[in-house]
Amino acid sequence: MLIIDSHVHYMKVEGFKRSIEEELLAIMDRLKINKAVLMPLEALFPFRGVQENERIISVSRRFNGRFIPVVTVNPWRDDAVDELRGLLSKGAKALKLHPLVQGFTPINEIVYPILDLAEKSNIPVIFHTGTPIYSMPLQVLEVALTYPKLNIVMGHMGLGEYWWDAIRAAKRADNVYLDTAGVRYLPVLEKAVRVIGAERILYGSDMPFLSPELELEKIRLLRISEHEKESILGLNAQKLFNLSVSKDHK
Amino acid sequence: MIQISYISSGIVDFQVEIGKSRHMGVSLTVDEALKEYRDYNLKCLVIAPLRGEAYNVEVKLVNERFRELLNTYKDRKVIGLAAVNPWHWEDLKTRIEGYLKRGVFKGIKLFPSIQGFHVNDEIVYPIMDLAAKLRTLVYVPSGYPPQTPLEIADLASLYPEVKIVMGHAGFSDMWIEVASALRRNDNLYVDISTQTQIRAIKRAIRDLGPHKFVYASDMPFSHPRLELYKVKLLGLSEDEKEALLHGNAKELLRVV
After folding, report:
1. What are φ and ψ of residue A202, in 5° steps?
2. How far apart are CA A209 and CA B197, in angstroms?
3. Number of cross-chain residue pairs from A and B with Cβ atoms under 8 Å apart
4. C-beta atoms of B221 and A160 within 8 A
5. If both were cysteines, with which of A61, A100, A145, B168 could A135 make a disulfide (CB 3.0 to 4.6 Å apart)?
6. C-alpha dihedral sign at B220, B113, B191, B136
7. pTM of the entire predicted model
8. What is the helix, strand, coil percentage profile of chain B, to 5?
9. What are the φ and ψ backbone dihedral angles of B156, each rounded to 5 degrees?
């Protein structure tokens, strides 16, 4: 079965002895995860930036498509659009925004110029959701309604307590996708499938921050059809990120 | 599916919610919960009413229904927590005290986020006074406000004679408060159900010792297969596993 982890962080955790990418790949091989959508972490913080973004792009090139490179830019910076344009030309496939860490609410027009570019470039934008006061699903819905051609992923689908807002957002806007990383309750995922169908739900693990073993097992335990599980585990991400996958799922 | 052959210890599931609720449209019976443990050495299920109406509009009725339910499982490894609500305490207190004194329930459960109060609000004090008088266990789910781990710890600091178990180890991002909360309060314990930040749990067990942690499934919101798999991933010693799965709960509940 094709498994694409739509929410993976480029970060070192306790126990990592080799490079981050080698450790992540080892986990992916062990758990039979074909591809990972690899997101920056340090680059979210204002004092880091381009270096980590470019490292992620270079890692994705080295490992033959196993990693889908995601970058971030800070909308407060005057050069954010130019920076994003440059990263896209080097191979970035999606944009990650973390409104809480980066200090903006999604409904602030400050973010529009980079969203304009993302829309023109036809790349998905992944928002962290679920952490007040920014990063709230209904704030991100405003973005989705303003940019109906832009595919938006609600990372964590509202996380602990805002899952219903995330489901409502996906119900109201067809360009909203929900990733399952860190969702605690099985009935929440089952309800999301009942309300919006499985086609816009993406398996994500938040690894190495959270446990990919548990996050995968959660999907397997859901009381949904096998086809719905397959869609969530990989087929939806393959379509969203426009990925070609060989017959042996490489 | 993961094969769970590494669990040989007896198990106490510290939190299973029973009933039917409009909240997430879920339901669970005791028999359904017991069935999930048919391949394990289950010592006891600790059940409480399913979250939702039972903790507010139906709180005056739910405990009587639960009392009758527990009567049917007298020999079969099921003990119960009573639902209490500080807004209805005047109407509830006499009956709850009677239940606790007669051993019908082994503890009480508060649900601040459904009931509309901060867990450390003074409105809770009369309930805690009774818990202190009867040395009754108090269970509170933990996570976002109004029931963060440090808010629960604040309550624990005022009632050091009351054992308090906070459910879900901070639930989501509030795992960040769990270790600090536990460290300051000898009477505070935690169940690790639904908390998937495994490294934080591991570190807390390493730093504080395993005696403050109990296993729970939080059915129907999580599942024993997932929660027991988590126990495996924690990589504990046999003694630590035994404490988590059974020994600590046995101490807390003094019944199994």
Report:
1. -120, 130
2. 7
3. 69
4. no
5. A100
6. negative
7. 0.88
8. 50, 20, 35
9. -60, -35
Peptide bond between residue B126 and the one before it cis (omega within 30 degrees of 0): no
Contact B233 A213 (CB under 8 A): yes
Q: Which residue of B has its CA nearest to A181?
A: B196
A81 touches chain B (CB under 8 A): no
Q: Do A184 and B198 touch (CB under 8 A)?
A: no
What are the tens digits of pLDDT across the range A62-87?
998 999 999 999 999 999 999 999 99
Structural element, H or E, at residue B15: strand B11-21
Beta strands of chain A (E only): which ranges?
A: 4-9, 35-39, 67-71, 94-97, 125-128, 152-155, 176-179, 201-202
**For chain B, what is the radius of gyration of the CA atoms?**
17
Contacts (Cβ under 8 Å, ≥6 apart) of B253: B12, B44, B46, B79, B106, B107, B137
Q: Per DSSP, what are the bridge partners of residue A146?
A: none
Q: For residue B254, what pLDDT band results from cuts at 50, 70 and 90?
A: confident
Only one residue has tokens 């190495």, namely A208
Count other Cβ atoms within 10 Å, centred on residue B118.
17
